[in-house]
Structure formats: C-alpha cells, structure tokens
Amino acid sequence: MFGSSLIDRRSKPERVADQAWQHLLSAVGSAGDSVRDATRVARRNSSGLADDATDLVGSAADEARRRASLAFDALAGRRPALPWTLLIAATLAGAAIGWAAGTAARAAGSREQNTDEIEFVDVDRPNSPANQDG
To answer: How many Å from the N-terminal Cα to the C-terminal Cα in the chain?
Structure first.
C-alpha cells in the first residue's frame, strides 16, 4: 500500500520520466544481448576469415620461398630441372594423336581400295555387256 500511494502521488511528468527510464533500461538490456549475439557471430566469422587469411598468407609465403629459391639457383648458375611430367604428358598426347591419324589414314586407304575393284565398261567395244540387247 505504501508503494502504491507513492506512485499515485507523483506528478504526471515524473511518471512519464519513470516509464521512459524503464524503456531505456530495457532497450539497453536488449541492445546488450544483441551486441553479445553479434559479437559471437563476428567471432565465429572472423575465425573463418582468419583461417582463410592464414591460408592465403601461407600460400603467398610458399610462392615467395619458391621464387627466392629459383632466383638463388639462377644467380648461382644452376639450371632449373626439366619438367618431366610435362614432357611425358606431351609425348603421350603426341603418340595418341599419331595413332588416331594412322588409324584414320588406314581406314581411308581401305575405302579407296574398294573403289578400285569396280569394273568400268567400255561402251565402244562391240562385245561389251552394255551393247547386248537383253
């Protein structure tokens, strides 16, 4: 009862200010929750970004190390090693293309032999099958 009588005795501006204060406290509280949630999400996302950045920096460092090694070898007068995998792949591709071309040439040659077996008839010859009446 004592608390209710104090609330009733306050003026309207005091009650409005009290309500505004309560709304402000609840907004700050919910904003704090939102910030904590956003912080958790940002921490999760930033760890993924950090992993990606680490991979990127690591690959860039590996590339820089490789190039520095090649430059050092070049300055020392050492020639780079032959790219054996590339040479073997090119040789196999050339062999496959050569085999395909040879097979196609043999197939075309066998078709030409069939046309040589056709007998041409000389129409001007007197005993020609074309001159005989049937």
So the answer is: 138
User: Which residues contact residue 10 at a Cβ distance below 8 angstroms, ignoring those fewer than 6 apart?
Assistant: 18
Tens of pLDDT, residue by residue over 104-131, are 988 887 776 555 566 666 666 666 665 5
Q: b/e string for 66-96 if b means 16 or more Cβ within 10 A?
A: eeeeeeeeeeeeeeeeeeeeeeeeeeeeeee
pTM as predicted: 0.32
Distance separating alpha carbons of residues 55 and 49, to the nearest angstrom: 10
Taking alpha carbons only, the member of 23, 27, 16 closest to residue 7 is: 16
User: How many residues does this entry show for the chain?
Assistant: 134
What are the backbone angles phi and psi of residue 9, rounded to the nearest 5°?
A: -80, -15
